[in-house]
Amino acid sequence: MVFLAFLFLFTTGFISLDKKDYLSTELFLKSLEANDLKVISLPAESELGILLPRSNDLKLSGVYSCLESKFSVYELTNSTQFIEDKNSSNNVIQNKNLLLVSKQNVEVRIERIFFSLKPPLTIHDAGIFIYPLGACFLLAVFVLVERLFSLRRSLTFPRKVEKALRSGEFPNKKWKQYSAAERIVWVAVHEKPSPESLRSYAKLEVSALERGLYVLEVVVAGAPLIGLLGTVTGLVQVFSVMPSLAEGKDALSEGIGLALFTTILGLAIAIPTLIGHSYLCRLIDNRTVSLNWVTARINDAIHPQQDNVIH
Fold first, then answer.
1. Residue 76 forms beta bridges with which residues?
2. Which residues of 289-311 are buried (b: 16+ CB within 10 A; e: fewer)?
3. For the segment 117-149, what is each residue's pLDDT rounded down to a tens digit?
4. What is the 3-state secondary structure (H, E, C) of the chain?
5. Residue 42: is it exposed, middle or buried by C-beta count within 10 angstroms (0-12/13-18/19+)?
6. What are the pLDDT digits (tens) for 172-183?
7. Average pLDDT of the chain, as a whole number
């Protein structure tokens, strides 16, 4: 479940593994359409005046018309800063790796949308908090998978044991010790314990079923707190650059990204883990009832005159 939560965030594009601040032309065009601006694609040959000289660092994405503006869109491939030709008559604006080239200034709405584009959140936005959050994620996945495997019916209370006890068949020495119920039966047959000793052994088997659940409880409580710590750290970064906002836009963006991303990760880990923990607790309760019933039936068969109620 924890893995599925992260898979959903990655597949929807809400979280990216890409370390670079990358903007795509497709994102820009979708943003224009989302603001009810009709975009028309034009042949590149028809608008040579708004094309830049060929370069290995530039990739032409297309030539477009929107409102009364015509512009070409380029993506920087190898560098992060475009050096404009001083002799060029074109107007070039840049946002991250994206270039917007036009003869004159584009419409204000188009320019505003262009500069409002932000790259998706990445794992790297979580800073150093990605390490404890990653540890929580791995621990939660490992414990959930291990417990789901270990609590299978065949390893706790096989149907053959239930069928045998319901039909009144007393277990024999040929029974193996593959499951918790069979181990209880094996102890009863081979060691002839007292009713109290057998009940104590049954409690040991129940305790083994609960192994690792405390780790899930720690993850459920700890992951959101780590996310909250990241949020506070990010807000501190934001407020620390407020006085020099003009020079600290990158730090401001990093602080907001840290604040949001750590909270998202913490909750994305804690919520599925909480659901998994609740399911495992319910499953263990059912297995405990079954093992108690096995213990009572075996005690009744071995010590028919004694009180075998399990507390």
1. 58
2. ebbbbbbbbbbeebbeeeebebe
3. 877 767 777 778 888 988 999 999 999 999 999
4. CHHHHHHHHHHCCCEECCCCCCCCHHHHHHHHHHCCCCEEEECHHHHHHHCCCCCCCEEEEEEEEECCEEEEEEEECCCCCCCCCCCCCCEEEEECCEEEEECCCCCHHHHHHHHHCCCCEEHHHHHHHHHHHHHHHHHHHHHHHHHHHHCCHHHHCCHHHHHHHHCCCCCCCCCCCCCHHHHHHHHHHHHCCCHHHHHHHHHHHHHHHCCCHHHHHHHHHHHHHHHHHHHHHHHHHHHHCHHHCCCCHHHHHHHHHHHHHHHHHHHHHHHHHHHHHHHHHHHHHHHHHHHHHHHHHHHHHHCCCCCCCCC
5. middle
6. 556 667 888 888
7. 80
What tens digit of pLDDT does each residue of 200-217 get?
999 999 999 999 999 999
Q: N- to C-terminal Cα distance for the chain?
A: 34
Contact 270, 5 (CB under 8 A): no
Residue with tokens 């512009």: 71
- The two tokens of residue 159 are 């149907």
